[in-house]
């Protein structure tokens, strides 16, 4: 605050007093009214460029730190929240800022990182990730911040019951798929080959028989992802070579510009990681980092229609033909 400002001048003594860090070590109840008056005075302070999402993340980490000290309940719920955020960011590693933190993001999704977690470890996570939260794609922000207000005030489960990480169905299935990549059905999912009802039925029986999940877990996954095949594809991703092959016909007989190639490679990178891309995502980060106005800057309407057809075809191979609409 500028003490020479005519609005600040009447409170100059208090402003100067509370500009000293020592005065904030212990706030007596009797001075709250004075501080409220000061809070309304004009200031040269500029708002956080990382946005509201970063401040919410700050508060989430603070509450995790308090939970570590035993002064705050709900550690498991908040840990899962951070892991959801990390998972969402891992889908954005085509953005250099996010890619630079990929190793940390991967570690956050594991059990091991959270064993004996310390306050400095959590503070490091806050500092390294707070500026990235705004880069989470719009389609996943609702998932990441569902009932996030619960973290800001009174705790309310919002109708969701989080299970301990060791019981997390999605993580168990992801681990199974990674360790069984040579299985025919898993190969089909990764190599963009048509999955069948028989393939999915067999996988479902394996999941149930191996205790990886319950019928309810599977049905919930089907409902959230519009089918078991799409759920599994989102976990396996696509083999990058298979993702690139899907666009062979699009590139045949033409020479793409550097910007067009970059844009296309971004699509392929996301397909390799997440297995699916909706054409609407081409108007969201990370694509808007390259062209804020959308793909129309680099491609004709006909080209975009062709790209959409390719993405639809990739999606269709994770849906049995008998279930396709």
TrEMBL record:
Gene Ontology terms describing biological process: DNA modification
UniProt GO molecular function: catalytic activity; DNA binding
PANTHER family: ATP-DEPENDENT HELICASE IRC3-RELATED, TYPE I RESTRICTION ENZYME ECOKI R PROTEIN
Superkingdom per UniProt: Bacteria
Protein name: Type III restriction protein res subunit
GO CC terms in record: cytosol
Signal peptide: none
Every EcoEI R protein C-terminal domain range: 168-306
Pfam families reported for this sequence: EcoEI_R_C
The species this protein was found in: Candidatus Protofrankia californiensis
InterPro entries: EcoEI_R_C_dom, Helicase_Restrict-Modif_Enz
